[in-house]
Design brief:
The protein has about 150 residues and is an alpha+beta fold. It has four helices and four strands, in the order ααβββαβα.
């Protein structure tokens, strides 16, 4: 017999799915194949970014277009039921994303948002990720003048 109620089971399964959502796996595989190593879900950082590159002071978020209201056809969908409720929830996500982005930048981190819809074109995604990884961020007082890898 299942020790969880159906509702708990549903949440539990949703959480498991969320942890390894396909768009995030695509990003992870792409970077890993190119030799970039990362830490998953930086626990000490605002917003717990999906991928963290501590030495480079870079983080990547992989955002679902619907939940984070991307301005694309997947992000502009309006649910048929409880539209106001879901809209408020998604707008809450967007507001939180904005605060998270600012907090990370204030701490000196470069932030890249990869949208789910941008993970469908493998060549473009790879080019974008590599550009981001190679870009030198804004100099921080502690490491101005130091060579970067
Ligand atoms: Zn999108």
């Amino acid at each position: 017999m299942d020790v969880l109620t159906p509702e708990q089971r549903r949440r539990n399964m949703a959480a498991i799915r969320n942890a390894n959502t396909k768009p995030e796996m695509v990003v992870r595989r792409t970077l890993h194949r190119r030799g970039y190593r990362y830490v998953l879900r930086g626990r000490n950082l605002p917003g717990r970014p999906d991928l963290v590159f501590p030495g480079r002071h870079k983080v990547i978020f992989v955002h679902g277009c619907y939940w984070h209201m991307h301005e694309c056809r997947y992000g502009c969908v309006t649910p048929r039921t409880n539209a106001a409720f879901w809209r408020a929830k998604r707008e809450g996500n967007v507001a939180r994303d904005r605060r998270t982005l600012q907090a990370l930048r204030d701490l000196g981190w470069d932030v890249l948002i990869v949208w789910e819809c941008e993970t469908k074109d493998a060549a473009r995604l790879e080019a974008r990720l590599i550009d981001y990884m190679k870009a030198v961020g804004l100099p921080r007082s502690a490491d101005v003048g130091l060579p970067r890898d």
